[in-house]
């Protein structure tokens, strides 16, 4: 993989200030998705999947209440609109489609018209083809722990919100890439998406291994009190900006990394931490993948934005051009979707949580 992204060194060695955190260190792999043209044999976000031609494409069988929110568009429309936004002109002239985009737009319009003329039930009322979210090969993401001889993880979701948690439903597949013969050339696509943020933009990856420490909410009460001791931070040379809330420095710059990642520590914020247990064997589940709305936010930009993106992170951006949102994905209120798996058996159902 030719793309490289490098997380800047942390502003301070947290284990030098708080040695008690050393035992809580975990490896994680930041995926650093960036817009591109991944192929079926590439690790990607929102790219094509290495899917066997003879294997049925996953569909969401849940009931989908069709409520016209005014946001729903086909995946093709969502991506075309993003292309136009990315070509915003400073003189306020509207951007124009390229000939290829015009042809794609016409094909999409014809496909939509044919769907309407044929009179089938709207996908909100019938099984909905799922959209690719991530494809991760073990060769690129060695932190994965696949079952048996598997070396490929594929994750899809339904681009509709589902009750009671108002989030897309997800599907997870492990497979052995070498066993895939004929590849499904044209996977089915959903008629529409509930929201543009549920249509991932095709992205290539630049995986990077880092060391993470827990979100401050995951720490014991004793460690949380220790993080509030400004004297220890001051001795380490931390700016007095954080003197009133020292723990904020840890949470912003030293704990768990933002963005798409495999492994590591889960993000919290929407709720306090609580363990996730397998519905089959009751084992405590472990973090697999974080699906992020942002690679970094305004406060974290100088700290977590990769060195290669620092200049872009410091610039002003318009809709569709923010480097902190390369995938176009937004879950929850620009939150994260954390996926968990059972450590005892890959056959046990996974679970996910918005945070």
N-to-C CA distance: 30 Å
Strand/helix succession: HEEEEHHEEEEEEHHHEEHHEE
Major sheet attributes: 6 strands, antiparallel
Low-confidence stretches: none
Coarse structural class: alpha+beta
H/I helix tally: 8
Radius of gyration from the CA trace? Answer: 22 Å
Number of domains: 2
User: Which percent range fits the helix content?
Assistant: 10-25%
Number of strand elements: 14
Mean pLDDT: 88
Write the layout of secondary structure elements.
Elements: H1 14-17, E1 26-30, E2 34-35, E3 44-45, E4 59-60, H2 75-86, H3 99-118, E5 128-129, E6 131-137, E7 152-157, E8 170-175, E9 203-204, E10 208-212, H4 221-227, H5 230-235, H6 246-253, E11 261-263, E12 286-292, H7 301-304, H8 310-314, E13 336-341, E14 351-354
Antiparallel strand pairs: 1-10, 1-11, 2-9, 3-6, 3-9, 4-5, 6-7, 7-8, 11-12, 12-13, 13-14
């Amino acid at each position: 993989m030719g793309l490289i992204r490098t997380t800047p060194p942390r502003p301070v060695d947290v284990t030098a200030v708080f040695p008690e955190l050393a035992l809580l260190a975990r490896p994680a792999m930041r995926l650093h998705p960036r817009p591109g043209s991944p192929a079926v044999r590439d690790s990607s976000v929102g790219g094509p999947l290495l899917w066997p031609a003879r294997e049925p494409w996953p569909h969401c069988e849940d009931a989908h209440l069709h409520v016209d929110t005014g946001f729903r568009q086909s995946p093709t429309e969502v991506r075309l609109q993003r292309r136009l936004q990315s070509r915003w002109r400073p003189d306020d002239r509207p951007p124009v489609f390229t000939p290829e985009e015009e042809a794609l737009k016409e094909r999409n319009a014809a496909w939509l018209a044919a769907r309407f003329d044929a009179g089938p039930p709207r996908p909100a009322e019938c099984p909905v083809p799922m959209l690719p979210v991530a494809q991760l090969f073990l060769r690129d993401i060695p932190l994965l722990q696949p079952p048996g001889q598997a070396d490929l993880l594929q994750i899809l979701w339904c681009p509709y919100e589902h009750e009671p948690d108002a989030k897309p439903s997800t599907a997870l597949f492990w497979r052995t890439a070498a066993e895939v013969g004929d590849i499904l050339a044209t996977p089915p696509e959903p008629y529409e998406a509930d929201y543009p943020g549920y249509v991932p933009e095709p992205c290539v990856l630049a995986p990077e291994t880092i060391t993470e420490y827990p979100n401050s909410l995951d720490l014991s009460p004793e460690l949380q009190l220790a993080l509030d001791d400004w004297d220890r931070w001051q001795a380490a040379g931390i700016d007095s900006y954080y003197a009133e809330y020292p723990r904020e420095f840890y949470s912003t710059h030293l704990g768990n990394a933002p963005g798409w990642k495999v492994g590591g520590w889960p993000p919290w914020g929407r709720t306090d931490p609580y363990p996730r247990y397998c519905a089959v064997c009751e084992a405590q589940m472990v973090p697999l993948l974080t699906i992020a709305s942002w690679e970094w936010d305004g406060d974290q930009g100088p700290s977590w934005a990769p060195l290669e993106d620092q200049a872009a992170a410091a610039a002003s951006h318009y809709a569709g051009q923010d480097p902190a949102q390369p995938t176009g994905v937004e879950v929850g209120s620009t939150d994260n979707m954390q996926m968990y798996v059972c450590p005892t058996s890959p056959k046990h159902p996974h679970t996910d949580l918005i945070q």
